Fold:
Amino acid sequence: MISAEERAEIRRLFYAEHWKVGTIAAALGVHRDTVALAIEAERFLARHDARPRPSRLDPFLPFIRETLTRWPRLRATRLYEMLRGRGYAGSAVQLRRVVAKLRPAAPAEAYLRLRVLPGEQAQADWGCFGTVGTGRAKRPLSCFVMVLAWSRALHAVFTLDQTMESFLRGHVEAFDFFQGVARTVLYDNLRSAVLERRGDAIHFHPRLLELCGHYHFAPRPCAVARGNEKGRVERAIGYLRTSFFAARAFRDVDDLNAQFRRWREEVAHTRRVPGEDLTVADALARERAYLLPLPAHPFETELVRVVASGKTPYVRFDRNLYSIPHTLVRKPLTLVASPTTVRLLDGTHEVARHARSYGTGVPVEDSAHLAALAAAKRQARDLTGRDRLRTAVPETDAIFDVLARRGENLGHHTVRLLRLLDDYGAEELRAAVQDAIAREAFGAGSIAHLLAQRRRARGLPPKVPVDLPDDPRVRDLHVTPHRLEDYDALTHADPDDDPSES
Structure:
């Protein structure tokens, strides 16, 4: 844009001094198009007396006008196909130029100015603010916004989802900030509010109706494709984008919400209310007297869901895994999730509590759950070995009973007795165990000593334990033993041999 003085000077230099357009632009430091606009070059440079050139579309102009009158939004590509069937041999580009000139313009719609009474109406909606990184994952950043229509008081809650629980939590926090509830809350046809709509018949979300019954307000949806009916919350979302969110750094969602609350008090609520001689903060203080009072207890917005684990002691929730006691594997549990905590209930008893994770594939574990599982696995292995000993040598129960009272490591004795069972067999082990009980020599070491003594008394060599690797090629290898007498014969002299020849 140029000033009136500059425009007058350009016109003087062109019409009076007869300077060229380029000379004027260089002398005044403006663009050539600015000079051409100031001297109204189109008025005298256009060839008004020139006749328009004939076009292949000329015979089809009446049909084009009639078609666009009936269907103003018909695309030029569809119209091109219709004209080709009627003999048009020109290009689609030429048709687009003509359609752009002949298409009837949509009439401008006029809107009534919304006027409400204090405490009469609030407007609510979701806004999308891109994505944020949480660990190895990215989550969509959303913002629930509610505005009181009379005072323009604003409340917003940034979240990492648009679930029903976050939608309800936004209402509860907004009502708490406003210190009351407007008599109606206006929504568009978002799924959190309206499940189904057929004309004037509206099926509201059951959870929203529970919230309405708790706070005594009426939900009101906008007409279809009429977002302008809740223009105050739409403008508030745009105001948040430009005045608050743009170029703002934050650590996490909690930090972003804390920054919003400071910005609201210092910036948003210090504005003047349109048509009123007071600030938004002053208007809110006045409107609070007209709001419905809050109930004694806030509405519960936690997510409640029935879950069950698989073979591992974890339940899956919101892309992550949460540990549970191993005794509750595959048993139905109740999951209760808030924005910060995930709790798991067995009936009314809380069996696990975790900090909520917003990452992806993160195992959130309680060390007590894992330690109990590890202990149970060790005990299971010990019990399996003891069951085998009890079946082969029932007298080992008395041995383990004494060892348990002493507080000794039962797993160590179990492993040694199982090796003795494999080396000596059940009959020899039973005899040694009975002998040990009679001598009150309890323990795997004493039993091993008794077994070795019994073998020496029978003139047998002691058992030599051989620890073979777990490789089946070694354990399944069969070796044919050779006769040792052949080797013993090598140590005896042959009477036919002559010692003098050696």
The two ends are 129 Å apart (CA to CA). The chain has five domains: 4-45, 58-102, 121-290, 303-365, 372-465.
